[in-house]
Specification:
With 268 residues, this protein is mainly alpha-helical. The chain has one domain. 72% of the residues lie in helices and 5% in strands. The chain has a three-stranded mixed sheet with strand order 1-3-2. Helix 3 packs parallel to helix 5, helix 6 packs antiparallel against helix 9 and helix 8 runs antiparallel to helix 9. The model has no long low-confidence stretch (mean pLDDT 85).
Length: 268
């Protein structure tokens, strides 16, 4: 098994694995298999989510309100007139709430459409603004660490490049001291980002529950529509957890790569 994994993994790295211990190779192989399985499951969930979202986006909500109107009504009822409701065609932001820009962003099809999907997205993102106003502890942590949560993983590759360049320009010995140090720093930032992703999920779920309560109390959704919202949000939550698991497996694999690189370098 170790030899099989070694042959497969060698095609994905740029250093020799012949001197790397079998146990590290086996762990790397197992992580790759798990990544493949979870990725396939994530793809299936994404397909189901896209189908459900499209289906509910074709069905009008009983309140006959667009996403913009739903968000504006909920925000105004909670003294959040300072929060703007804007359309977003961005794949990065999509349906979201920004504490820094004081804005609820809704995708264009959600913004002006009076569908179940519009009702779901507008109410839930508006409720994130309510959590922010209420100084929810998880929301406060999420806001403070937003840069790390979203951009931490993006720093991994640049940090490795910086480490490699420093080894070449300063050490000039073919060593990997800076590479290992900066890669380890990148992994720490990556790990912090992963841990804080749990806070994001907690706030998203809190906002979903608050949205159910507000919509029901204000007769903005029927029991059937609330059931549809729960199904839609459940798929979103599963997708988010899938992405977290994939990120964790990628983190573990990168740690194993560093261990393998160190073992290979020490054998030279």
């Amino acid at each position: 098994m170790a030899d099989t994994f070694r042959n497969i993994i060698e095609s994905t790295v740029d250093f020799d694995l012949s001197s790397v211990s079998d146990i590290i190779i086996i762990f790397m192989g197992i992580v790759l298999i798990l990544l493949a399985i979870v990725s396939v499951f994530a793809l299936i969930v994404q397909i189901f989510l896209a189908i459900k979202y499209h289906k509910y986006n074709k069905k009008k909500n009983s309140a006959e309100m667009t996403g913009e109107e739903v968000a504006r009504k909920i925000l105004d009822a909670n003294d959040l007139q300072n929060i703007k409701v804007k359309s977003s065609g961005s794949m990065l932001f999509g349906n979201s709430y920004s504490h820094f820009f004081k804005k609820v962003r809704l995708r264009r099809l959600t913004w002006k459409k009076n569908s179940i999907s519009s009702l779901a997205m507008a109410s839930q993102k508006s409720c994130l603004a309510i959590l922010d106003k209420e100084q929810d502890p998880d929301m406060k942590t999420r806001i403070k660490l937003t840069p790390i949560i979203y951009f931490g993983p993006l720093a991994f590759i640049p940090l490795i490049i910086i480490g490699v360049l420093l080894d070449i320009l300063i050490l000039k010995t073919g060593g990997a001291t800076f590479t290992i140090a900066f890669t380890s720093l990148g992994l720490i930032i990556y790990l912090i980002s992963f841990i804080m992703s749990i806070k994001i999920l907690k706030t998203e779920v809190k906002a979903q529950n608050k949205a159910y309560e507000i919509l029901k109390t204000n007769n903005m959704a029927t029991d059937e529509e609330l059931s549809m919202l729960k199904k839609l949000f459940k798929l979103y939550n599963i997708e988010y957890v899938n992405n977290m698991v994939i990120s964790l497996l990628e983190l573990v694999y990168r740690v194993l790569q560093i261990v393998a690189y160190v073992q290979s370098a020490n054998s030279d």
